[in-house]
Design brief:
The chain has 117 residues and is of the alpha+beta class. The chain has 2 helices and 6 strands, in the order H-E-E-E-H-E-E-E.
């Protein structure tokens, strides 16, 4: 399974509106939702050019809900799930967000973890 699919599957039960990648038109969707963005990671390189056995990945997970309290609560549940499922490093506390187009409240938080290549 790809790391993206594993990450999506691990948090899917926490957001009734679904988990999406990169971007989605959030108007008209059931809320809450989560959006996963791959934001890089630390590459492992060997002088002989061989392929590493692990990738060190970094993802941002955004949550959108009808209230900031709901978004914060779900973000904390996602943090607990990602931390334990992937032994992830949490790259900081969740930051609040607001989407003026949809009038939704949200959070964004970054995670780093290693995954088999």
């Amino acid at each position: 399974m790809t790391p993206e699919a594993a990450l999506r599957n691990s948090i899917l039960s926490l957001v009734s509106g679904g988990v999406f990648f990169t971007t989605v038109e959030i108007n008209g969707l059931t809320k809450p939702i989560a959006i996963i963005n791959q934001i890089g990671g630390i590459s492992t390189n060997f002088l002989d050019g061989s392929k590493p056995s692990k990738r060190h990945l970094r993802y941002q997970i955004n949550v959108f809900a009808t209230s900031q309290l709901e978004a914060n609560t779900i973000a904390r549940q996602i943090e607990d799930t990602v931390r334990t499922t992937f032994k992830a490093y949490v790259d900081g506390e969740a930051a609040s967000a607001y989407d003026e187009t949809s009038n939704l409240f949200g959070t964004r938080q970054d995670f780093s973890f290693s995954y088999d290549s």
